[in-house]
Amino acid sequence: MAIRYPLDPAGADAAAVRETLRARQRSLADEIAATRGTSEARGDEVLDQKDEATRREFNEIGDAEVARDVGELREIEAALRRLDEGRYGLCAACDAAIDPRRLQAEPFAVRCAACQTQVERGRRR
Fold first, then answer.
1. Which of 1, 33, 55, 125 is the most buried (most CB within 10 A)?
2. What is the largest CA-CA distance in the chain?
3. pTM (2 decimals)?
4. 77 and 22 in contact (C-beta within 8 Å)?
């Protein structure tokens, strides 16, 4: 049986999606904590300018990773809200159903492939 969108918020399919999203939330929270812990562990132990430059580089990479993870957490939270509202799986731009394969690959997708392509083309200009 094919999944039909939008999902019934109380249905089994919605529960499975909700668990997938929550598992990813937990994973991201763990990654953020680990990255922050690694940055703090490097601390103040700077021996020379090369060490300082290396420390700064690691901290910048860690900050970028945390920013990316926080962004994904926000997307997941929005997907959970759409799921609760009965709008999960519908494109925010055209209101068409998002291809289930796209949602399988990116469960927090907010647009269908066609609308996402238009958004990305607009960003490149």
1. 55
2. 63
3. 0.80
4. no
**Residue 67, token pair as written in the block:** 């920013």
Specify whether the CB–CB gap between 15 and 23 falls below 8 A: no
Residues shown for the chain: 125
Query: Tell me, what amino acid is at 94?
Result: C
pLDDT, tens digit, 9 for 90 and up, residues 69-123 = 999 999 999 999 999 999 999 999 999 999 999 999 999 999 999 999 999 998 8
Please report where in the chains the tokens 């997941």 appear, as a residue.
Answer: 76
* Angstrom distances, CA of residue 19 to CA of 11, 48, 51, 58, 92: 12, 48, 43, 33, 22
Measure Cα distances from 22 to 14, 60, 65, 68, 107 in Å: 12, 28, 19, 17, 11
